[in-house]
Amino acid sequence: MLENKTITRERIAAVEPRIRPYVRHTPVMRVDMADFGKSPFPVDLKLECLQHSGSFKARGAFTNLLTRPVPEAGVVAASGGNHGAAVAYAAMKLGHKASIFVPEVSPPAKLARIRGYGADLVVGGARYAEALAASEDFAARTGALQIHAFNQEETLLGQGTLGLEIEADLPEIDTLLVAVGGGGLIGGIAAWFAGRIRIVAIEPEGAPTLYRALEAGEPVDAPAEGIAADSLAPKRVGEMMFPIAEAFVERSILVSDDDIIAAQKALWDRVRIIAEPGGAAAFAAMLSGRYMPAEGERVAVLVCGSNTNPANF
Fold first, then answer.
1. Residue 2 lies in a domain
2. How many domains are contained in the chain?
3. How far apart are CA 105 and CA 83, in angstroms?
4. In a domain, 3, yes or no
5. pLDDT in tens, 262-312
6. How wide is the angle at C-alpha 80 spanned by C-alphas 191 and 235, nearest 5°?
7. Average pLDDT of 114-121?
8. Which end of the chain is more exposed for a tag (fewer CB within 10 A), N or C?
9. How far apart are CA 120 and CA 101, in angstroms?
């Protein structure tokens, strides 16, 4: 197994004070699964859906812009929507130009947020990989700083600060459920905890990127379909996060689109939390019973994004 020695607890701790003035310390809500029609069981929801730009991605975006030199041409990013919104927001706050490339599957709510932050928005390509290729060409032509959504050291370090925050908020938890797309979020969080708690990946059945990678022993191409395709469906997980996942992610659990929709509805109906499909995926594992905690197990669920229109569910 390869090792990733650059994404460490120490480096994440060093990054956190740099971005602290620019990101929210998001709240935790304790819920009882009995309120969702299940057997009584307490679960802590970490509401990163309330982060600036609507998702955890603000952490990685600010880490990039605050620790790397930004040229006059500004920054460029490819995104299914959330990373683009985060980079656009961070660039706006720090006074940089931003160009964001998104695929055609990106939802209107995410596109509106990117435009609202003043970024130049380019929509094209059927999937994230095509938007990424276009953004790389733009960076080569203009000299803009490329900020990768998940396969970049600074991005992983920034997302890892969420692990630091969860540990501070919930020092007694045994298990954390985390949704996975490209793996930047779970990679950073798993690097922070480094085996101290159980980290379980939750993925859509239509986009099992980490599930396939763990089976194969390396990142491999996976399908990129389903309701969460805009946020949890790159072709494969990042090379940088994979050694971390092999070492510190216990397993990956797949949830269906119906499970995700039910979780979105339940979060809104019962606790008035808006979660996009990718943001609700981890809770879907609890609600559907695909993750069954042991008696007395202390479980936290990361609700990681809210960029959607509630009318959709």
1. no
2. 2
3. 14
4. no
5. 999 999 999 999 999 999 999 999 999 999 999 999 999 999 999 888 777
6. 65
7. 95
8. N
9. 9
Q: What is the 3-state secondary structure (H, E, C) of the chain?
A: CCCCCCCCHHHHHHHHHHHHHHCCCCCEEEEEHHHHCCCCCEEEEEEHHHCHHHECHHHHHHHHHHHCCCCCCCEEEECCCHHHHHHHHHHHHHCCCEEEEECCCCCHHHHHHHHHCCCEEEECCCCHHHHHHHHHHHHHHHCCEECCCCCCHHHHHHHHHHHHHHHHHCCCCCEEEEECCCCHHHHHHHHHHCCCCEEEEEEECCCCHHHHHHHHCCCCCCCCCCCCCCCCCCCCCCCCCHHHHHHHEEEEEEECHHHHHHHHHHHHHHHCCCCCHHHHHHHHHHHHCCCCCCCCCCEEEEECECCCCHHHC
C-beta of residue 73 within 8 angstroms of C-beta of residue 47: no
- The radius of gyration of the chain from alpha carbons, rounded to an integer in Å, stands at 18
Answer for the pair 32, 283: CB distance below 8 angstroms, yes or no: no
Give the Cα separation of 207 and 186 in Å (integer): 16
Residue 4 belongs to some domain of the structure: no
Q: What one-letter code names the amino acid at 213?
A: A
End-to-end Cα distance, the chain: 42
Q: 66 is in which domain, residue-wise? A: 57-146
